[in-house]
Amino acid sequence: MQIDLRELPDGLSTLELDLPAEGVGLTPADASLSGPLRVHLKLDRRENEIWIRGKVQGGARLECSRCLADYVQNLDLEFEVFCAKVQNPNVVSHKAVDEEDGGIHPHDGRVLSIDGEIREAVILGLPMKPLCREACAGLCPRCGEDLNQGPCRCAQAAAGG
Length: 161
Prior knowledge:
Radius of gyration: 22 Å
């Protein structure tokens, strides 16, 4: 996602758009989305400094870690990024200097890309242990039946015999 800074006025402005996963660098290995990402940006520009508060909404296709069912998890994520103009865009700074700057995203004064920040917000917003629902019963460890559908044959055989 490219923001043309020559057209961005000083002060507050908003931007809303729909972006495909590929548009922000998300690959199928990162996340499988059920549709485009809805991105809402509030930009506060003061000359060469820009403070961006963003909200990303969409749906991620996940597999439940207990019952292995596919489901869609709604994403409602927020991120912030501070952007400042670099003096010489052709000079790449040392990685340690970038880590010390407190997370300042550089721009060249013409175009600003925040694809990485949107991608990062989506990846960090995904659950580490996806669950189709909080009370998911999972699979039977003996026969592998989905216990959300009711008791399995193992439980029925044990109760009856």
